[in-house]
Amino acid sequence: MVKWVKFVNDMITRIWHGKTKKADADRYLSFLQEKGVQDYLNTPGNTGVRIWRTIEQDIAHFWTVSTWESRESIAAFAGEDISKAKYYPEDQDFLLEFEPTVTHMETFVIK
Hints:
Layout: E1 4-6, E2 12-21, H1 25-41, E3 46-56, E4 59-68, H2 71-78, E5 103-106, E6 108-110
Antiparallel strand pairs: 1-6, 2-4, 2-5, 3-4
């Protein structure tokens, strides 16, 4: 029987979405790995980050999916209003639009 178990300390998943041109997809992935992922991992309370990407015709969609110990740890990364997306100056060179918010979700695991 499958049992759903909530992570200890009410772990939270933060999901950000962005879009680039297909031609910029690999360069933006490198930027995310070098800049964004390092910021996530260097923030106390971050428990991991993954990047998801899919390419549809001429558009590359990116999602950064990070897990956190608490809302306070997310605030240390993103600022007091954790619902706002965090952007870097270099994002101007790649992103087709700037979505204003991110999604936060409770995180569960199957045991």
